Amino acid sequence: MKSQPSRKTYFLLVTILAILLLVMIGGSAQAADSRWTANFYNNKDLSGKPVLTRWDNTIDFDWGHGSPAPQVNNDNFSASWVRNVYFDAGTYRFDATMDDAMRVYIDGNIIIDSWTDSQEHTLSRDYYLNQGDHKIVVEYYEAGGVAIARFKWQPVSSGSGGGAYYPNWKGEYFNNTTLSGAPVMVRDDQYVSFNWGYGSPAPGIVNSDYFSVRWTKTINTNPGYYRIFITSDDGSRLYVNNVLLIDNWAVQASTTKWADYYYPGGPIELRVEYFEQIERANVNTGVGLVPPGG
After folding, report:
1. Taking the model in full, what pTM does it have?
2. Which site in 52, 102, 196, 279 is 20 to 30 Å from 177, CA atoms measured?
């Protein structure tokens, strides 16, 4: 006569199956958490039923003059991406690059808001997060022309200056002449050398007149005497390690001022501030070794 499984063996098998099921479900949830749920709409305001729903591994798109998919318009479309992400406690720098518009929410709080027709531009926000899961929602619309949508983040290290996120100059642009409030645009600028004429640094985002900019950068070069200059229309000033070195802060035609500075070695922090009132706008900085004999 065949022996029947004992009650103890039966419960052991049930327990093992339950554990396996939980592991499988947990693995599926983790896989879903690593991707974005994306919805696309054939209008600019995320209304109605989406014409396409899909998984996206990243938000890193340059569709040019084309479409995200055959079901989606080339112009006048919108999209939303939703994802739950686990973060260690700390401050993170969130970066949204768009043409035309984008909004970013974390746990229902809007941290980036550029909901207007525009050319390609980037906005950044440093934001502290507690340890744990956080819901991120990215909303986007394309009005016409080129369509770009990119979003990413990285931890912000103390004392890192611009860091890898801003390998050149971190430029913060304000729609006032006093560098006050939140910047309307933050981007990496290779040089502080611009001649905007009667135009804007970023049409549709930054004013043509009555705007200001703050550029920051940390450098580390050879010790020596350096001559630093700054030219601007209208006002500008330059700080080294938070000490004002050049003061050119006035409503004026293009004017150049310079100063000699001995650099002993090690990292130093540079900050350039600029404002434009009306008419022409330009700013240019430069640095060179002071020749023997001055």
Report:
1. 0.57
2. 102
